[in-house]
Amino acid sequence: MALGQAQINGDLASALAAIASAANLDVMKQIRIDYVGDKSPLAKANQLLASLEQAQRAEFGKLIGAARAEINQAFEKKNIELSAARDSQALLTEKVDVTLPGRRNLKGGLHPLTILTNEINDLFIGLGYKVAEGPELESEWLNFDALNIPADHPARTMQDTFFVEPLDAKLVLRTHTSPVQIRTMLDEKPPIYVICPGKTYRSDALDATHTPVFHQVEGLVIDENITLADLKGTLDFFAKSIFGENVKTRLRPSFFPFTEPSAEVDVFFNDRWIEWGGCGMVNEKVLVGCGIDTKKFSGFAFGMGLERTLMVKHGITDMHDIVEGDVRFTQSFGVGKK
Amino acid sequence: MKVPLSWLREYVKLPPKITPDQIGQAFINVGFEVEAIDLQGESLKGPILVGKVISIEELPENKKPIRYVELDLGSKQNRYVICGARNFKVNDLVVVALPGAVLPGNFVISARQTYGKLSDGMICSAKELGISDEHAGIIVLPQGRIGSDATELLSISDVIFDIAINPDRGYAMSIRGLARELAGSLRCKFTDPADSKSSPKLKVVKNSKVVSVKIEDKTGADQIYIRTIEKVNVKNSTPIWMQRRIEKCGMRSISLAVDITNYVMLELGQPLHAFDADMVMGGLRVTRAGKFNRLTTLDKVDRKLEADNLLICDAKSPLALAGTMGGFASEVTSTTKRIALEAAHFDPISVAKNSRSHKLSSEASRRIERNTDPMMAEVASARAVNLLIDLAGAKYVGSSVAGVPIKKRKLKISISKVSQFIGYSYSIKQVRESLSLIGCKVSGGGDAITVEIPTWRPDLHTMADFAEEIARLNGYQVIPSRLPIGKTGGGLSNMQQRKRQVAQLLANQGFSEVINSPFVSQEMVDLLGFTGDRAKSFRIANPISAEAPLLRTHLLPGLLTTLGRNVSRGIKDLAIFEIGSVFRNTTTLPKVVMPETSRRPSAKSIDSIYAAVPKQMVFIGAVVAGETLLSNWQGKGVGFIWSDAVAKAIEIVESTGNEYEVISSDLAPWHPGRCAEIRVAGKPIAHAGELHPRVISELDLPEQTCAFAVILSELPIAQTTKAPAIWNQPATVQDVALVVKSNVTAAEVEKALRSGAGNLLESILLFDRYDQIGEGKVSLAFTLSFRAADRTLTADEVAQYRDGAIAAATRSCGATLRS
């Protein structure tokens, strides 16, 4: 067999043509034997190099090497292409309907009152408040007397109270979370910044808008130079955080025994004014009764019903949904939807 | 209180074009909540005329008696109408709506054929005219011109404001008080109806016997007026204008004498009472009940008196529950000739007690409880006498007075202090104007002003009280908005964090949070088999439902009720949980102290107050029925069984960073063989498992309903977590299958294995339990995993540890290797 440039080029061309026209990996196996392996024409030509003279050997060696490298490269490229095509063909047969519903755990959720309470707590913690809590079965003195609601004051009958036997134990189911404010003022020295969420009780029968067991959140601030303007600013911030940036608030003069001046706070939400809660400057009598120096300190307090807040915010029309514990209600709020 | 605009207009010079809504807003702006605005007569269209009944033909052949009535309406021909009411007779004056008239509810009147007659109009009731709920019969007018416009006669067209009066504003429970507030809010001219010029001076016509009065109990009243009137024509009817005003204020017209006392009370806020003077033995006295123990009041209720009830008595017996309700024996009747008219400034607290001890809240007591104007006893009684003279032809005989009215008070306030308190700088002009609007007289022109407080404002005492008046009359909207930031640092307490964390833990695992009623029935307590501390409930003295008077001692009653409700609504798979307080009457509470509130109680008193409130533990509880991994097209889901309940309870305990042990328990209402008790530091902290089948069947719950409850508040607060060393040498595992008696618990075996395995034991897992080997034995198979910090453990070394573990299990549990 003679070595010649034309011969090498011819071998190269026929190898590349075979690779280019290969339709599958089986053909590629034969191509490997015919054009790439030890029995391929160029491999054989390479063996002949030893018989050549020094100068020719170098020249033809280069030519053969370059041709073989080109063939190898083309072969590998084609091989990868054909393997990928085969694989993707195989995966296509494994295609599934991904819309089939997967296994689900039972859906859980936090009660929206809990979600709201957490949200409010976080909001006020951000303003440097502490969260204060207290007992639901509470001393009559803390629930009424200390809040400037003496035994024979008509305000004491404003709130229909559950009394607990024996009556001389003077225990009531707290009618508001305000006794927590008193406990805080008795236990701590000003400045005081607390938010008091919790369960409260009044002897109203359950209907679409009332429940004997409900939840309130109250805020109390006692510090130097606290004014009604501070109360307004705090309520504005609170309302915007709960109902959205566009909500408006207004204060309407009102009466509570434990605040003076007192006001109702309304929010303008979904195109109407809604009564949201009560507030005012803490009555001097209450501060004095807790031993707070009223020459140095003043304070404000506010309180809202959480059920009412929830009903307004989420468009709940029937109190029964909040209290009945139907899992469909809780589940719709998930584990922390706003 | 309901007030008609027509009456307010008498004392407030309102702008002519002001709308009812603007007036309502004016009340709201100064702190009076308007609960309703009733536009009376708005949807009414005439002709509605005064007619006289000429003849009545009874049509008896119908189901209910029907009358065919001939009416004179001032035209040539009489008109005939059908009428179902029976409270009228021939010659009565009635209100007739003629065809073409439209009554409220868009009720168009037309001539129509009915009961075989032509009914050419309708005789109206008050309800049909939309002026009251009274529909017992048709309106019979005391007077009126035949054929005249009845809507005008009845002054139907009016606006009624229903206004909520706060307890500190007793003065506003009157036309006088509300007119002043409205005038103040709108800055309109106000005329005080109590001014002497609007009430002519009383003239004593003859000096005969005057009923005397004395105040024996000085705390009960400051002053009392008794005015004696003779020759009263009590049978005169109340003029329509007065009847209508009384009705518009939400009261009923009763009789002339009573109507006059009510009318004056509505106008001036001063309750009055008329006694039949001939029923008074000797003079009248303001006194406590003492030994008197019975009084029959006007409502014919025979009442048992309490010794400190404040009464009006004569020489012999109690005549009235002071300021609350008159007595039946001395009431004005159709035969009364002489009247003793009482007006007093009673002590609000005494009257509040009267009212409360007899559960009797009257128009009078509601006003007196909120305090009345001490100057009004004289003025209002004089006004009533004048009306009795005018309308009942009475002769005034004279009056007796006991006590003196409270003097006017004065107070110095600093404008700058008020401004500082509110956070807005009020000018002296603003302060003067707003205080004069509420009837104060202001003197002094600098920062410190002297305010003379009007007698009808006993609520004004401190700088803050005046700050409120100044702020409300200048509008809360002018006050700026400023956000103060706490200086103490915030954050949740450990317990608050714990509640949040365990709620989130369960919610993330498919549990739905519920908030249940804490009111429980004895029946439920018995059904659940609660004993010991859980049977010691507090009882509510005034429960909403007599069936559920107890406070919960555990969360399960509420959870099971709610579970049942969900199941009855067709929900098969559900897991619910609640976090809440429970109430157990387990400790003897110390004697209650009720210290005075004018200063801080002593430290000892505060401790006693706190100690008298029973401790209330916080629980987390859950009940589960059905599947928690839901069935779907891939296959059946996974049900929640007793061991899942135990695992969940353990997860909660673990999440608080506490160590625990599990033992078996037979606590009700769990299945006695399928209940685990979880202990922390030796104390029972949680119970979990399957419910007792009897409880499940009695409450109609799904089979194998499971429950768990953990006392969150009794779990110790864990120390800061110390990070473990993480060793990265390979672990070596060894499986061990042991046979033990079936009454030996897995926990006991595991504990023994742990104790014998040495300190290179990393974890232990029960991977198989086989109970079919007989002889009352079970096989338990564990995987023990060992790891060293510094080397790969050799097979020999690990075998040694494993043998140590087995030996320990053999020693303490009688375990043998399964062959």
How does this model look, in words?
The complex is a heterodimer of chains A (338) and B (819). Chain A has 338 residues and is α+β, with helices and mostly antiparallel strands. Chain A folds into two domains: 88 residues; 222 residues, BirA Bifunctional Protein, domain 2, CATH 3.30.930. Chain A contains 13 helices and ten strands. In chain A, strands 1-5-6-10-9-8-7 form a seven-stranded mixed β-sheet, sandwiched between helices. In chain A, a hairpin with a 2-residue loop joins strand 8 and strand 9. Helix content of chain B is 26%, strand content 27%. The longest helix of chain B has 19 residues. The mean pLDDT of chain B is 93. Chain B has 819 residues and is of the alpha+beta class. Chain B has a seven-stranded mixed β-sheet with strand order 28-31-32-38-37-36-35, sandwiched between helices. In chain B, 43% of the residues are buried.
From the structure above, extract its key features.
heterodimer, A: 338 residues, alpha+beta, BirA Bifunctional Protein, domain 2, 2 domains, seven-stranded mixed beta sheet, 10 strands, rod-shaped, B: 819 residues, Phenylalanyl-tRNA Synthetase, Chain B, domain 1, OB fold (Dihydrolipoamide Acetyltransferase, E2P), Phenylalanyl-tRNA Synthetase, Chain B, domain 3, 6 domains, six-stranded antiparallel beta sheet, 20 helices, elongated
Assembly state of the chains shown:
heterodimer
> How many H/I helices of chain B?
20
What name does the CATH topology of the largest domain in chain A carry? BirA Bifunctional Protein, domain 2
Average pLDDT over all residues of chain A: 91
Strand content of chain B: 25-35%
Number of domains of chain A: 2
Strand order of the largest sheet of chain A: 1-5-6-10-9-8-7
CATH H-tier superfamily of the largest domain in chain B: Bira Bifunctional Protein, Domain 2
Largest sheet features of chain B: 7 strands, mixed
Q: Please tally the β strands of chain B and state the result.
A: 42
Helix content estimate of chain B = 25-40%
What would the CATH topology of the largest domain in chain B be? Answer: BirA Bifunctional Protein, domain 2
- Broad shape of chain B: elongated
Known CATH architecture of the largest domain in chain B: 2-Layer Sandwich
CATH homologous superfamily annotation of the largest domain in chain A = Bira Bifunctional Protein, Domain 2
Elements of chain A, N to C (H/E): HHHHHEEHHEEHEEHEEEHEHHH
